[in-house]
Design a protein that fits this description.
- The chain is mainly alpha-helical.
- The protein folds into two domains: about 70 residues, Orthogonal Bundle (Arc Repressor Mutant, subunit A); about 150 residues, Four Helix Bundle (Hemerythrin (Met), subunit A) (Up-down Bundle).
- It contains eleven helices and two strands, in the order ααααββααααααα.
- A two-stranded antiparallel ribbon has the order 1-2.
- Helix 3 crosses helix 4, helix 5 runs antiparallel to helix 11 and helix 6 runs antiparallel to helix 7.
- It is globular and about 55 Å long.
- The N terminus and C terminus are likely disordered.
Length: about 230
């Protein structure tokens, strides 16, 4: 479990469950808390200097996002990620991403376009600064704006969970994404945006599929080049 500083403890006292949620979520997404790490309510309450109630609230929110899991024996842990499950994750991401992007091309408004463009600008800015955490947050926000433009909350809610899992994988190989010669990362979203702007549903779906495959190929190439470096995502 990550070490919580005195400043964090004091902030935890001021903000309660919201701060604890944000701090734990950040540590999970940046892999400071590794997949499979146990989370004990009593220990967390002591570290943050609060009662167990706000810790329980924070964990409940993380569970709803799929970042934390409760086992049948009531053990709470950071949701593991088995590399063998990666193809299934990509299949789910691909199908959902294609659906929400297609719907966005059909249903988007001018206000939606403004929000999508603004989110992409923020993503490119974070990418340029080399800010791992901000980059993954802005990437997620960009894709969620597209999903919201599709006007299907059921798909959007499920898609958000998939994107949350993807944030951990993005952080794991962020340096590789930036240095990759497959495409320039700051251009990753251009085809998707163009198709949505032009209301081209087939092209939007195809671009989102290509985007998923690019994410898959970057990650697999990263793993191939780093298999001897004892990388652990379990």
């Amino acid at each position: 479990m990550g070490v919580v500083t005195l400043e964090a403890e004091n902030s935890g006292k001021r903000h309660g469950g919201r701060y604890i949620y944000e701090e734990l979520r950040k540590q999970i997404l940046t892999l400071q808390l590794k997949p499979g790490a146990q989370l004990d309510e009593v220990s967390l309450a002591a570290q943050f200097g609060v009662s167990r109630s706000p810790v329980r609230d924070a964990l409940a929110r993380l569970i709803s996002e799929g970042l934390v899991t409760i086992l049948p024996n009531r053990t709470t842990l950071v949701t593991p990620f088995e590399i063998e499950e990666f193809p299934k994750y990509i299949a789910a991401l691909d199908l959902t991403q294609r659906a929400v992007t297609r719907l966005a091309a059909i249903n988007r408004t001018e206000q939606d376009l403004d929000r999508i463009r603004e989110a992409n600008t923020a993503y490119v800015r974070a990418l340029g600064l080399g800010n791992f955490q901000e980059m993954s947050e802005r990437n997620k926000a960009f894709h969620l704006e597209i999903a919201k433009a599709g006007r299907n909350p059921y798909l959007t809610n499920y898609y958000e969970k998939l994107l949350g899992e993807g944030q951990r994988l993005l952080h794991l190989h962020f340096d590789f994404i930036v240095s990759s010669q497959m495409t320039r990362p700051d251009e990753d979203h251009d085809k998707i945006i163009e198709a949505i702007v032009n209301r081209q549903a087939d092209e939007a779906e195809a671009a989102s599929h290509e985007h998923t495959l690019l994410f898959r190929d970057r990650f697999l190439e990263f793993m191939k080049q780093n298999l001897t470096k004892n990388i652990s995502i379990l």
